[in-house]
Amino acid sequence: MRRTYSPNSLPAPADGQRHDWQTVRNLLPYLWAYKWRVLFALACLIGAKAANVGVPVVFKEIVDAFTAEKPPGQTALVVPLALLAMYGLLRFSMSLFTELRELLFTRVTQQAVRNIALQVFRHLHALSLRFHLERQTGGLTRDIERGTRSIGTLISYTIYSILPTVVEVGLVIGILGARYEASFALITVVALVVYVTFTVLLTNWRTRLRREVNEIDSAANSRAIDSLLNYETVKYFNNEEYEAQRYDRQMQRWESAQVRSQVSLSVLNLGQAAIIAGTVTLIMWRAAVGVAAGAMTVGDIVLVNGLLMQLYIPLNWLGVLYREIRQALTDIERMFVLKAEQREIADAPGAVPLAPGPCAVRFEHVDFGYEARRQILFDVDFSIPAGGTLAVVGHSGSGKSTLARLLFRFYDVQSGAVRVNGRDIRRLTQASLRAAIGIVPQDTVLFNDSIFYNIQYGRPQASREEVIAAAQAAHIHDFVTALPDGYETRVGERGLKLSGGEKQRVAIARALLKNPPILVFDEATSALDSQSEKAIQGELDRISVGRTTLVIAHRLSTVMNADEILVLEGGRIAERGTHRVLLERGGLYAQMWALQQQEEEAEPLPA
């Protein structure tokens, strides 16, 4: 069964820890690609921690050297100077190994973030149209942003903090156990177990609260972006306050969730502080008793205090690090859900590229439905010879635009086949198939960039001269050069700074620049007034000469010159023939023609 992704929900694993380990296993290959850097960095990590723990050991010897009784005539500073030199060397070695580790691991971290982000981005573009129609852009982009950011956080905290802390704890417990009575090491181990257990239990509770905060945050962000993208609709219906109230309801939920999360954080911090304070007090008491009994020197109590300080700082941050790591795993988990989303449409094994040159298209007894319970097309069968023009007309919902989506292979047919030059398009590579098709859609959506960029998007490698030639062929060059910024004029979000006719001409120029053997006009003039429609229709007729053309139209006046016209009714071909033949037949096409003629005659003349 195909997995589906919802940006406001995350599949809840049966075992949260197992799911975290799966996320870690997914990350390891990206790190292991730089295994020698990783191993060298780990060696530097161990060296830095060994030097760090060695500092209080040497300091203990320095203190004992100063406090020990010296034979008459011996210089008291001979031994301490040597130890002081070693003390300074250890301090420097600690910093040297730490910086070497970070220098070595920086490229590993950044390359892993880059590779995963790129793979997710490519995967999202490879997913089906169905996925992108169902998704919510705001929540999706927020999940990707948090996920990529959290990869660096996870790697940084794990390699730079958690692993060094584990090494340091092991070294400290080893020194305490080897030099002093077992109670010192036992107290330390028990305290660590209690501390880690308390931290894990409280953090798991906090993770559920944090997950709720994330879900509410994504929902609020999606709602805000959806509202802003539909800015004009909000204005048309005077619903600014309604939208603000909807957004505020989400933010109220977010506020409550954040407060609960902060309360849990305070409880966790107080508990950790109590465990650390109790441990430090107990061990220092044992050391003081040892010194008072003569079993330990002043240097020993300095060493125990130094080692406790070595543990105190990382233990004090361990809870914070664990929380951040769990949060990072939660965020990365959402991104890996995206990465694991199955591609509904994929190249078949052994798929071959479509050969260049003229293309003939055939829909062969095609049945299709977006959902299993609702079929859209029934036994649709037609051919478009290379260089020919076929038009498809019909009422809204009859399945016209579905034909273009099937030709682009955004979906696969349930039965029958779509063929190009006799080959089932499921046996062709998607890249080569789509490279052979150009489209002028009903709703031309442009990138928020320059006019030049939007035309060049048809063939990004095209030169400036080729872009201008395409604009001239689409009769938009004069309009563009009259603008203050010319071809560098930005078109705004989704091209909103341009009129419908101007956007259509940009779409025509883009299709011309692509220079495909197959053209699809999907209701390309339906949103235009009659004058603009006639002007653009003439351009469409001109650029379709010599190309295999599929025209999907509502206005019958735009398809009169097609080689063949299909009339779709309820997903079935009700009639077929030329314009003249269909009018003479007096069927559905003739009725639609008569109705549209009456509507045009009833339209008031322009003022």
Query: Order of strands across the widest beta sheet?
Result: 6-7-8-3-9-10
Q: Could you give a short account of the major beta sheet?
A: 6 strands, mixed
Q: Specify the overall morphology.
A: elongated
Give the CATH level 1 class of the domain at 19-340: Mainly Alpha
Give the overall average pLDDT. 79
CATH topology of the domain at 19-340: ABC transporter transmembrane region fold
Helix % is: 55-70%
Tell me the CATH architecture of the domain at 19-340.
Answer: Up-down Bundle
The tally of beta strands, per DSSP, is 10
**In CATH, what is the homologous superfamily of the domain at 19-340?**
ABC transporter type 1, transmembrane domain
What is the strand content?
Answer: 5-15%
Our count of helices gives 18
- Structural class designation: alpha/beta
What letter string, H or E per element, gives the SSE order?
A: HHHHHHHHHEEEHEEHEHHHHEHEEEHH
Low-confidence stretches: 1-18
Q: Termini, distance in Å?
A: 59 Å
Keywords:
single chain; 607 residues; alpha/beta; ABC transporter transmembrane region fold; 4-stranded antiparallel sheet; 63% helix; disordered N terminus
Written overview of the protein:
The protein is of the alpha/beta class. It has a domain at 19-340: Up-down Bundle (ABC transporter transmembrane region fold). Helices cover 63% and strands 9% of the residues. It has helices at 16-32, 35-67, 78-126, 129-134, 137-179, 182-229, 231-236, 240-292, 298-340, 400-407, 430-435, 451-456, 464-473, 477-481, 500-514, 530-543, 579-585, 588-602, and strands at 361-368, 377-384, 389-394, 415-420, 423-424, 437-440, 518-522, 548-553, 564-569, 572-577. The strands form two sheets. The chain has a six-stranded mixed beta sheet. A four-stranded antiparallel beta sheet has the order 2-1-4-5, with helices on one face. Strand 4 (415-420) and strand 5 (423-424) form a beta hairpin. Helix 6 packs parallel to helix 9 and helix 17 (579-585) crosses helix 18. The longest helix is centred in the middle third of the chain and has 53 residues, at 240-292. The chain is elongated and about 120 Å long. Residues 1-18 have low confidence and may be disordered.
